[in-house]
Structures are given as structure tokens and as C-alpha cells.
Amino acid sequence: MLDNSLMAKLSDFGLATLCDEEDPFMTIEAKGSRVYMAPEYSMGKAINIVKADVYSFGVVLLEIVSGTEIVSETVSEEYTPTQEVEFLLDKVSGSDRINPLSFFFL
């Protein structure tokens, strides 16, 4: 998905393409923005890469629908990735917090 300036707003996180079809579970060093990582990935556990991409995409969709960037709101070493997402869910709970324009862009 691109904005008016042709800047990417949504794209494939790409980890699923690195996945071995016969063994979709792998352990790799965690890299990237902590908040977008599946909790298992950020803890260095073996994860299903496809499911990790789905988790990351879900966080991005939550940001779009809420109109809130989770990274700027909650980045802190004291928060786990799951707590950061829960913080955003609490913040946007209720229909008055949903950005109605976000559905236009989906």
C-alpha cells in the first residue's frame, strides 16, 4: 500500500520467504522493531515464521485502524511486546477511538 507520495505504508515483512517448507519453525536472532515481533520471536524461541508475519501484520493493522503509532507510544524496556500491544488495545477500546478514515484505505 502506498500513500500519495508513493511511500510504502504496508508491505510484506518478508520473513515467511526464508522459511523451509518442511520445517516452518526456526530460531534466529531477533532483529527489527520489538513491538512488531511475535512474542516468541523477541524471546529467541523457535517460532513459526508465517505466524510471526501474521502477528506483525496484525499490529500494523491495529495501528492503522486506531490512528495511533504504537512504537511512539510505548517503547520501553519494561514492556514486553505483548504488553505494548495490550496497551494500544486498551487505549483504542471503544468505537469512538477507531479512525473511520482508516477503512477507506484498507
UniProtKB/TrEMBL annotation:
GO terms for molecular function: ATP binding; protein kinase activity. Keywords: ATP-binding, Kinase, Nucleotide-binding, Transferase. The keyword Cell cycle does not apply. The keyword Nucleotide-binding applies. Residues 1-106 form the Protein kinase domain. Gene3D superfamilies: Transferase(Phosphotransferase) domain 1. It comes from the Eukaryota. This is Receptor-like serine/threonine-protein kinase At1g78530. It comes from Populus euphratica (Euphrates poplar).
